[in-house]
Design brief:
Blueprint: E1 4-5, E2 13-15, E3 21-23, H1 26-33, E4 38-39, H2 41-53, H3 66-74, H4 76-88, H5 95-103, H6 106-109
Parallel strand pairs: 1-4
Antiparallel strand pairs: 2-3
Helix pairs in contact: 3-4
């Protein structure tokens, strides 16, 4: 299952060097995850169980990620160019973060629980 799954890490929580639990500010978290869709953990678990019940070898959530898998198999250079342009072109200000900020796609790509600071 490619992509990000809702978890403590995608909510911005991490353990600092001194062993304390800290929460990253949303802009740092968004720079890391960018405009990658984040799926609910329950949806991924449901898809995994259904996949096992149906004897599926591969489970892809969300379904449109199959396009990336096909690119990886049949046109890896194109996928590499897309990913390099979108994520590595400007390491200080990743294109994915810029797109996320300009289009306000957090509401679409991130579950509501990720925006909340716990």
């Amino acid at each position: 299952m490619p992509g990000m799954i809702e978890s403590e890490i995608t909510k911005g929580k991490f353990v600092s060097d001194d062993g304390e639990l800290s929460v990253k500010p949303p802009d740092q978290r968004d720079a890391h995850f960018g405009s990658v869709p984040v799926a609910y953990a329950e949806d991924c678990a449901r898809a995994a169980v259904l996949g096992v019940l149906r004897s599926r070898r591969y489970i892809v959530v969300p379904y449109f990620y199959w396009a990336f898998i096909m690119l990886r198999i049949y046109a890896p250079e194109i996928l590499e160019t897309i990913l390099r342009t979108f994520y590595v072109y400007h390491p200080q200000e990743p294109s994915s973060k810029v797109v996320l900020e300009k289009t306000k796609t957090q509401r679409v790509f991130y579950p509501q629980t990720i925006g909340k600071q716990h």
